[in-house]
Structures are given as structure tokens and as C-alpha cells.
Amino acid sequence: MVVRAAAFEGCQVPLPKPVKIVGCGSCGVDYLASVAVYPKPDQKLRTDALEVQGGGNCANALTAAARLGLKPTIVTKIGGDGLGDGILSELHADGIDTSLVLRATGHPSPFTYIIVDREGGTRTCIHTPGAPMVPEEMTAELIRHALDGAALVYFDGRLTEAALLLARAARAAGVAVLVEAERLRPGLQELLQQADYVVTSTHFPQEWTGEQCIGDAMLELAVRLPRARMIITTRGAEGSVCLLRQEHGSQPDPPFERCLQDVIHELTSQITGMSSSSSSSSSSSSNGGSTTDHVCVSSNGIAIQPARVGSTSGSMRLQFSSSRNSAAAEAYAQEAARQAAELNADASNTQGYTMIQQATAEGSTHSSPVAQVFVASAAGLPAEAVADTTGAGDSFIGSVMYGITTDMSPDKIMLLGAVVAACKCTALGARPGLPTRQQLTPQLLVAGQDN
């Protein structure tokens, strides 16, 4: 049964001063068809619901950040059509600055068909891109306006040639760079090399590196991306994993080494025990209607419980597992690249998706990274309350942007991201379920307080 909150005290205090962030990437329209079960080939069936909403990773993540209180500006390109007008109107309604959006006269705006399978809990996306943003359109004036007063610039991995110009300018100006790695794309490796912060999808680390376990894959990611201070991999219902790299010279090297896969396993067991203990305590002390542990209430009244997070006590030198097989990893990565090219209707360009750059990563020493490890669970949301997972990763990234620019610690960022992502899943589409500050407890939004 879905638990609904009878009373809830959300955050009523805005941020003390405006915080500008910039997002560069995809923006379009989503056509969401909810069906009872995914159709078989040649089968006809009816939708349970059809929604037409704004979409695109970058636009979705900025919307999440805007509802948390940040002031986003989007850099993207859409069509000069009616769909484009609707895209801008929806972004304006959430307080997003669209003054740097380019319009392609005579071209349609990007759009995506999304089939939401209620029985399987999956969503299948078929994307039709619009006119690409080319490097010549990322002018010096546009870059200057984008970076003026910005605390952070976020890239969703699209428009890579143009995005790289903005990323390099941001680094030169001392503006933090966050790059999303959702799936293999041509040019993404160069963009990732500019990143101070990286957030990946569940499968990206293993597809890029070919490593068979999440620990080895994330560790190889850290080796390849020596500039990245923080790397987070989202894992859907399993939560997220974060590596916080120790800055060079900030502390003496730790006296011990650990296999990252073992550390992740131990921390996962630790937070699983925390969740079980909390559930037992809640069941014995309430009669099914308590809102004591709720940290968020969705717009349709669903109460969401906090995630759990565990971490190492400090930084340690991280090692690969003993079962690591370099030859198998290379073969897996090559096959992942082939499949990515095929799915992107770019089968003749498999090499562009391979992204093998171990020997060329700028600043890479191939030494084992020294980092603190964090593992978080997903937030507590009844299974029957999940309407659609479209955009859950985008909402998490919006939370990461909020956390970075308000000086949150990694564990706080992961806790906030888990709750915002869970709330998003209570409604069909990427944006309707995104919470505002008023739907979240103050403790989730303040850097210096514990949940």
C-alpha cells in the first residue's frame, strides 16, 4: 500500500543568494506512452496514458536544479518550430534562462518517443535528433555570457565538439566542470578529460573500460580521468557509488591499500543492515501512517523515506581485483563500442565510440588512485508508487549540481540525489514529479546538518 503523508514540514527558506549554473546539451520534446506490457513485434495495443512534455538530459537536470533553488542557464539548439516554442515556454516556467538557446530555422526540434512498460518497470526510448550545434556557433560572446557569474557548468555528453570549447573556457576561468557519462559517444572522452566532477550511468564504466565488476570499472575510470575530483556512478534501485579523490599533497599517503570491489561490497552490506534495522524499528513503533522518517512528499502525496549511506573512514589507495582480465576487458569494450555505434545509426564509426585513451589521458600516471569511497542506497519508495523512471538519472544530476554549488559533502549529495530521483519516479515523464524545496525537509538541503 502506498503510504501518504498527512502532515509535512518542508523547507520554506530560499538560498541566501542566487547561484548561477550553466548546462550545455540536449533539449527536446518527449512523447510518453504508458502501456500495461511492452508490445511484441507486429502487436497492436492501447496506451494507458499519453503525455507530451519537455525532455532532454540537460534540460531535465537543469529543471531539477531550478526547483531546488538554483538559477540555471541553458546552452543548446532547437528547431524554429512550434515544438521549440513550447520547449522554451516550459523552461521559462521553471525559471531557466533560455537567452543562449539557438533556433534552427527550417529544422524541427529534437523529440523522443518513450514507451513506459508498467509491468516490467522499463522505458524504451527512440530519439530523433534536430540540427546539431556546430563549433562555429559556440562563439566567444556566447561563452562570455554563459560563464559570467557561473559557479558550475554541466555537460550531458551531447554536442561534444561545441561543448568542448565551453568546457575549456570554463576551466581557464576557474569555473567547475561537471560531465555526465551516460553512454559511449564520439568525442566524449575529450570532454571527460576536462571534468572536475563526473556522474555516470549504471553501465557506462563497464562499457567504456570493459571491466567486469563495478569496482574495477570505476577504478579504471579514475585512472583515466586524473582531473576528476569526484566520480559518482548511479545504479538505479541499488543506489550509487562515489569516489572522492584525495588532492595531491593535501595529506600523507594512507598506509594501507584495499580492493575497491571489496570495499563496495562491504559498504553495501553495511547500509543494507542499516536499512533493515530502520525498517524493523519503524514497523514496531508505528501503525502504518507515521511520517516521522519521511524526508519528501511528492506532489501526489506519496511519502518518501531517506536513503542510507556508508563510507570509508578516510582515503585509501584503491586496487583492482585479483580476477581482473585485461584481454577480456578490451574485447568487452570493443563489443560495447560496436553496439553503441549501431544503436546510434552510426555503425561505420565504431572506432569513434571505442574511447580507449589509457595511454593518452592528460596527467594520467597509471598509479592507483587515493580516494574515499561512499555507497548509498536508493531512497525508500513503495514499488507500487513507481510510475516511470524516465529522467531519474537527470534528477540525480540536478541534485549533484545543487550539492556542489552549496558545498555539500559527497554523502549529503548522494542522499539528496536519491530522494529527488525517487520523487521524480512518482509521476509519468522526466519533470512532473521533480520536487520543489517546499517538498523536501530542510535537513536535506543544508550542507552542514545531518539527516
Describe this structure in words.
The strands form three sheets. Strands 1, 4, 5, 8, 9, 10, 11, 12, 13, 16, 17 and 18 form a twelve-stranded mixed sheet that branches. A hairpin with a 5-residue loop joins strand 11 (230-234) and strand 12. The model is unreliable at 280-291 and 357-365 (pLDDT under 50). This protein has helices spanning 57-68, 82-93, 140-147, 160-172, 188-192, 204-209, 214-224, 260-285, 326-343, 350-354, 392-405, 410-424, 442-445, and strands spanning 20-24, 28-35, 49-55, 71-79, 101-104, 111-117, 122-128, 150-155, 176-181, 197-200, 230-234, 240-245, 257-259, 296-297, 303-304, 309-311, 316-319, 370-376. It has 451 residues and is α/β, with parallel strands linked by helices. It has a single domain, classed as UDP-N-acetylmuramoyl-L-alanine:D-glutamate ligase (3-Layer(aba) Sandwich), CATH 3.40.1190.20. The protein starts with 19 loop residues before the first strand and ends in a 6-residue tail after the last helix. 33% of the residues lie in helices and 21% in strands. The protein is built from 13 helices and 18 strands.
